[in-house]
Amino acid sequence: MSQGEGAGAAGVDLETSLGYLLKEASSSLRAAMEAALRPLGMTVTQYSCLELLSQRPGLSNSELARGAFITRQSMNVLLQALERDGLVTRPAAAPVGKALPTRLTARGRRTLDRASGAVRAVELRMLGEMTEAERAAAFALLQGMVVRLRGGEATVSAPSAD
Amino acid sequence: MSQGEGAGAAGVDLETSLGYLLKEASSSLRAAMEAALRPLGMTVTQYSCLELLSQRPGLSNSELARGAFITRQSMNVLLQALERDGLVTRPAAAPVGKALPTRLTARGRRTLDRASGAVRAVELRMLGEMTEAERAAAFALLQGMVVRLRGGEATVSAPSAD
DNA sequence: CAATCTATGTCAGAATACTGACATGAGTCA
DNA sequence: TGACTCATGTCAGTATTCTGACATAGATTG
Prior knowledge:
- The structure is a homodimer.
- Chain A is mainly alpha-helical.
- Chain A has one domain (36-150): Arc Repressor Mutant, subunit A (Orthogonal Bundle), CATH 1.10.10.
- Helices cover 58% and strands 2% of the residues of chain A.
- The first copy, chain A, is built from six helices and two strands, in the order H-H-H-H-E-E-H-H.
- Chain A has a two-stranded antiparallel sheet with strand order 1-2.
- The first copy, chain A, is globular, with a radius of gyration of 19 Å.
- At the A-B interface, helix 1, helix 2, helix 5 and helix 6 of A face helix 1, helix 2, helix 5 and helix 6 of B.
- Chain A binds a DNA duplex through helix 4.
């Protein structure tokens, strides 16, 4: 049966699997981002958090966690560190409910600006010579995969970001 | 200017970023695989290791680590557990060099067979109604990204054709 | 032959993310 | 109003992965 080399029938052929290649691409991207952010003393997750806050000010801890694809507990630890370092601010009390709207400080924005350039360079390198049509095709194909994997769930619900 | 909502010029627009979408897709795939493997009491990394060993018997610890996109130290921890549970075997002494060729046991193969079906179902769901041409296109596009990301690190040159 | 380089396996500690749990605030519904 | 459900923030413990370090085996090089 599939006991020798060729395990392509019952299993997933790693040579041609889109899932495996997707993981490889994501791993490569993460490694490249880590290398680009290391000189700035920043991790990928920290950058993701700051970038999210830049484009969607006032996101709560849970919303940031979903946007960075980690749990809200992990994001909470990260936010506490960022708050301690003066990169973000959170009100002591929630204006409504329990959600604490987080915002970048001036220092946080400056830190993000440096990192954002490095990350954009990585993304540009990744895109390379891809044409606009190819980028659009890749975007559509990946989006389709996400939709089917999640069963048609939305990504990050964008609340009224003031 | 770019400090409010629309930070599309200096940074990376998360709404249209292929990198962000790539991370989202990988996260979705991992979550789906975890959900599929949880009933079997197996993690994604464990499955990756067993699948690699099935298709490439005799891979060493370091080779498995590269194939699963983790460090060889982490893979070593995983292999020790798999060996303890009787799913894989490693010779006590290296036949050549220091590399220890790892192989699946009968029990490991049975465990993998169950998991492999579950994972293949996830991949099929991810592919959905994609045509063969679309799959090939996605594969080629992702492969290109990997090549460019792994390629130059200091040189952002990337001789563009346009 | 000897020195050097590279790759590997492994141990130990640190960093990161996750699961479990609890209390709180808001919305829903009888 | 009161019970119920859901989402959130947070604490605590666990699990996984990473970085650093060391010794060893083979290849390379002079």
